[in-house]
Amino acid sequence: MVSTSEAPSVILATKLAGEECADFGAGLPQPWTELLPGGQIFAALILCTSFSEKYQGRLMQPGERADVRLPAADGVMAQTWHPTLLHRAGHQEAVAYTWLGDEAAGDRTIYVAFAPMRRKRQFFKIVGSCTGLGDLVCEPLGAEGDRQSVLIAPYIQRKLAKVWGGCGLMEQLSKYVAAYPQHRILFSGISHGATLAQAAALQFQCAQPLADVHAATWNAFKWTDS
Fold first, then answer.
1. This protein's superkingdom (predicted)?
2. Cα–Cα distance between 75 and 183 in angstroms, integer?
3. CB 88 within 8 A of CB 97
4. Of 41, 141, 204, 214, which has the fewest beta carbons less than 10 angstroms from its beta carbon?
């Protein structure tokens, strides 16, 4: 999995597109050498912020497309990608939008973008849940494998369980992975959304060990003692 905390700086993503950026990301570990200059990290950031349930994505329905304008080098025409909203899961305190990358632009990515915190009272719920840790169960789906668990803040545990199960994210995302076997899965979020994205990416990778799962997150808070 990828986390922005492992990269030198996400500010580098503003240097996307253009032949003069052909070597951009050179020297970084995979998949940064592909996702940073390719535009996927920037697209993930826009989808988990501007087009999240908190902002422009609030009234969007599956089938609608977002306009993600990628930064461009001087003198190079900027590209605009049009990812398609596939599924909405959750409400209020934990919301994930699943997007299909713009295949016309060559983007073979399924984005799972978690919305940021909406209300101040969530902060107190998060702080209050840090007094104890629960289990985040990680197990393969439909295959033999070891059942594992990771200690996790109870608030995050409850929200993820509801999004995966009651809101159908696990079922829908598994369906999309089967329908688009050549696509990577990129979880993203900032702050509260970043924490949910990190934990969700871990859980989904355990459930789908053959899937190409990554996470690009910004300013996540600690959710486990592992």
1. Eukaryota
2. 31
3. yes
4. 141
- Interval 40-57: pLDDT, tens: 999 999 999 999 988 899
Q: Residue 98 has what pLDDT?
A: 97
**Quick one: pLDDT at residue 76?**
74
What is the C-alpha separation between 215 and 204, in angstroms, rounded? 11
Residue 146 lies in a domain: yes
For residue 16, the enclosing domain spans: 4-218
Tens-digit pLDDT profile for residues 81-94? 999 999 999 887 88
- What pLDDT score was predicted for residue 66? 96
Spatial distance between the Cα atoms of 194 and 218, rounded to a whole number of angstroms: 6
pTM of structure: 0.80
**Residue 186 placed within a domain:** yes
Count up the domains in the chain and report the number.
1
Return the SS3 of 69.
Answer: strand
Residue pair 118/191 in contact (Cβ under 8 Å)? The answer is no
Residue with tokens 């986390």: 3
Name the amino acid, one letter, at 198. Q
Cα separation, 70 vs 82, in Å, equals 11
